[in-house]
Amino acid sequence: MSTPTGAPAPPGGPAVLAVAVEHARRGVRLQVALRWVLVAFVALTVVSVPPAHSVATCRVIAACYAVFALAVAVAVRRGGDRAVRLGWIALLGDLVVLAVLTLLTGVATPQSWTSDVVTTGFLLLPVLAATQLRPRVCAAVVIPTVVVYLIAGIATMAANQEPWSSLLLRTVIAGGVAAGCIGLSLIQRSRVAQIGRLVQTRGELLGELGDLEQRERSSLSEHLHDGALQYVLAARMDLEEARDSGDPEAFDRLDRALTETSRLLRSTVAELHPAVLAKAGLPAAVRELAATAGARGGFTAEVRADGWPADLRTTADPLLHRTARELLANVAEHAHARTAHVTLSFADGCARMVVADDGTGIGPDAADPGGGHIGLASHAVRIEAAGGRLRIGPGPDSGTVVAVDVPADPV
Questions:
Q1: HEC string of the chain?
Q2: Is the pLDDT of residue 207 over 60?
């Protein structure tokens, strides 16, 4: 696949491609602005340091170069996909103009300083080429520039009585500028690619997280329907039976149903607004999450918090609590695990949580936006935004181990 400008499509998809094309067009516009500096340089050189002969020819060349620069500027201003390609071709035109002027003023009119001044313009060509996001295009311009610079120097060396040492030193400097510009082109292309990948990730998250609220609502509805609502319906039936028969066992069943309903409702409310997090701390809140998830998924959940002081409250507690809820919900819904272990610790300003299960396991790319676990991907983004890191790996024998490290301050 290639871009509209003829360049190979950068990795990362349409979002990266759009960013790369836009930056390429900006580079061409900068190149147009710098070309006018070169046009002014050529014109001022011909006027202020004219050669002894062929003055009219040099002025015609300078005028034609100004017309050429104007034509390129107009074409670029109109935009379109051809603007970037035209920018590449225009660089070769710059090289041809400088080479012709250097040879014409250095060989035909050796008595003037014109060629010595014109050769300085060669050093601006690599800068023009560095505005391109394609390092190969940049190299295709700067390497011939250095070669032509050396050839022009050799052709005018006898007329100017310049020693080889001076010519070679000037060529080394020109080569250094050329290499630096290729390096700058590589750097800016890598930065644009990175920006494009971030744009793509942001777009994917925004698009996929649009359904997250609906999923949360559906999950809450299912939780209430399959849990508390069933106990309420059973309690109603037991109440009607108790009214008709006065059976003590009906009252006992009614009491158990209402008790279980209260427990499930408290659990649901705690998931939505974990008051226990502020009152009892993160370990207690995570234990409540683990107990609820274990009952829902049919596995044994254990929370270890030996490395977390009982009275500790940190700035990372809400983030870790939400992440623990997501991870334990994944264990309950997808892992088919028998056991799950949560470990909490805090040391040196870093809060750490590890959730391990012995279930079927998930892939290491589950936290990526395209990995299929949108909720987990959103939590990974939040953790990274807080300066932390979420890592997923296989368990020692089976299952999955998720480690979360987040910078945190005691509060």
A1: CECCCCCECCCCCHHHHHHHHHHHHHHHHHHHHHHHHHHHHHHHHHHHCCCCCCHHHHHHHHHHHHHHHHHHHHHHHHCCCHHHHHHHHHHHHHHHHHHHHHHHHHHHCCCCCHHHHHHHHHHHHHHHHHCCCCHHHHHHHHHHHHHHHHHHHHHHHHHHCCCHHHHHHHHHHHHHHHHHHHHHHHHHHHHHHHHHHHHHHHHHHHHHHCCHHHHHHHHHHHHHHHCHHHHHHHHHHHHHHHHHHCCHHHHHHHHHHHHHHHHHHHHHHHHHCCHHHHHHCHHHHHHHHHHHHHHHHCCEEEEEEEECCCCCCECCHHHHHHHHHHHHHHHHHHHCCCEEEEEEEEECCEEEEEEEECCCCCCCCCCCCCCCCHHHHHHHHHHHHCCCEEEEEECCCCCEEEEEEEECCEC
A2: yes
